[in-house]
Design goal:
Elements (H helix, E strand, L loop, with lengths): L2 H10 L3 E4 L1 H8 L6 H12 L4 E5 H13 L3 H13 L3 E4 L3 H14 L3 H12 L4 E4 L11 E4 H4 L3
Parallel strand pairs: 1-2, 1-4, 2-3, 4-5
Helix pairs in contact: 1-3, 2-4, 4-5, 6-7
């Protein structure tokens, strides 16, 4: 089975997928090591094969580099993509999401941003969470998909 097929097969098992910021960064910055994964992921979200969920934390994290570089074109492009991408929900950090994040942070001692991303995914009934942070594999409440493992890196 080729890489694209194996990634599709992996993702198809999860109708709603939480997506960590790193997947967006790899894709938008065309990281060639991870494009085989992110191309499949975002194509599946775009065509509705799966639904994507991320939190407003992604907006903050994704805009840091273009803001530092004063790259207005990238800032506008990234904001437009996030706001208009089909089948992608950007979950605000509301009371329920923050409460879920606090539970995860207390139980697993994960970073606040990670807890909020996972909390948003869980509140929105995601079945899996795509990241490259191996520490998040310990979270039992959701299936964690590590991109580099899926690619055999």
């Amino acid at each position: 089975m080729d890489t694209t097929t194996s990634i599709k097969t992996l993702l198809q098992k999860h109708p709603i997928v939480g997506i960590d910021t790193v997947a967006f960064i790899y894709h938008l910055e065309e990281n060639h090591k991870y494009l085989p994964f992110t191309n499949v992921l975002f194509e599946m979200v775009e065509n509705g094969a799966i639904k994507g969920i991320t939190s407003t934390i992604t907006i903050m994290e994704i805009l840091v580099k273009p803001e530092k570089e004063e790259n207005d074109r990238a800032i506008q492009e990234y904001k437009f993509i996030l706001q208009t991408f089909p089948n992608l929900k950007i979950k605000p950090i509301d009371f329920h999401t923050a409460e879920k994040a606090a539970e995860l942070r207390a139980k697993y001692r994960i970073k606040p941003a990670d807890a909020l991303q996972l909390g948003a995914a869980l509140v929105e009934n995601a079945n899996a969470f795509v990241t490259n942070d191996e520490k998040l594999k310990q979270v039992e409440e959701i299936k964690t998909i590590i991109m580099k493992h899926a690619l055999g890196i």
